[in-house]
Amino acid sequence: MNLNRIELGVLESNTRALKLYEKVGFNREGVKRQSIYKNGKFVDMIMMAILKEEFTENYKNTTKGANSLLNLYCIFKIQAFDEIYKVLIDFSDAYTPALAEKIPNLQDYAYKLYCNAEVFAAADVSVLGFITFYANDRKSKISYITQIAIKPKSQNKHIGKELLDLCIEGREGIGLDS
Ligand SMILES: CC(C)(COP(=O)(O)OP(=O)(O)OC[C@H]1O[C@@H](n2cnc3c(N)ncnc32)[C@H](O)[C@@H]1OP(=O)(O)O)[C@@H](O)C(=O)NCCC(=O)NCCS
To answer: Residues enclosing ligand 1, CB less than 6 A?
Structure first.
């Protein structure tokens, strides 16, 4: 939908996710201080975003897709409510704390995603990772990435990067480039 801006928030302690977001071009814009209570203490949330103007020719020209060919997985859109719910349950433990702890009613959350968000998954014989983002604000053209998780055995294989690339690029008509 020709987005102008994609936003997300990440806990300061989640260095792996921070590095990934910086790698794909997100910039740090601010800190929501002591925003989340985790493991007995308050933790800062780093707010990050990428703008359409930062989505450079250079970024567009980098090789995409080779990794998925090499690893034999495909990326597809999840459109059924029960499949979204299943992915949330399956990936709950990939998060610390678990998603089910953070969001007690995963079924309601799945329904909200089903109605309003885009959900994409990377899968071989099973789902290896997923991303969810809102791209439905036609006025502001701002997208919000709300979840991304990769199964532990499939991490560090650039699957997270590919899912973010899909959100940032114009693929499926929703990124910064459509
Ligand atoms: C964060 C997460 C999605 C990353 O997915 P991934 O598929 O493993 O990441 P990628 O393999 O695409 O890595 C891309 C880049 O991220 C960075 N990165 C990934 N893993 C890293 C690690 N363990 N340490 C430091 N940097 C790391 C690197 O810069 C890497 O690029 P490079 O290998 O070319 O240097 C994954 O670790 C995850 O599912 N974590 C649990 C859920 C979570 O925290 N989600 C984010 C909530 S904000």
So the answer is: 10, 14-17, 19-20, 23, 94-95, 148-150, 155-161
